[in-house]
User: What shape does this take?
Amino acid sequence: MRDFHDAARCGLSKGELEAVLRQVGRERYHNHHPFHHRMTRGALSKAEMQAWALNRYCYQAVIPRKDAMILAHAEDPAFRAAWRKRIEDHDGEDGWSGGIARWLHLATSLGLDAEAVKSERLVLPATRFAVGAYLSFCTNRTLLEAVASSLTEMFSPLIIDERVSAMLAKYEYITEDTLAYFSWRPEQASRDAEFALAYVLGHADSAKRQQQTIDALVFKCDILWAMLDALQNAYGAPGNIPPGAFRPEAVR
Assistant: This one.
């Protein structure tokens, strides 16, 4: 696997920078993680699937908050007008009819209690720390770095396709209604990724800024990977569930 930490030291053209960013995704996106591979093979227990949905909710719920932090950095009203669509996608027009609500539907369709999911009190500590690190990154780093960290959306349609087709084919308790969240995301993610990539390529105008964008995307890939590491460690065999975290019944 390539070390990307000095990829831009001599400066890159826009085409070269885009190629490096896409290579980051090909090598480091979490569709390569063993937990994802077990999911697509049909090898997860229902308990593991519940744990995945519950912990992922913690990440989904922070997305509009991190996007609000990005908006706070942005001085360009045209940028803000485009970026705020992301918040609307997740919160919905009324605050509770968007992607977060559809993810909660996914979790409850798997048998989880809605209030327990929304409270996030049963989330793994590593998930909470990873999600908090992502929010902190988008709050405290430059606008360019925060936007670049969102470029994992370039790769999300692929993992969504892998997940959805495998879930419907290999888990009898999962239906198209369960996975309604995913019917919306590929189009939204592609739109958002196109905008973010254009912004990054247009503003990463020095070797230093180019390296910052690469590092930001590597960081975001690490966040997503760490979340699956935590799930695998806690709920995969032999299992090491931390105190206070979700402890499912042994449902297969």
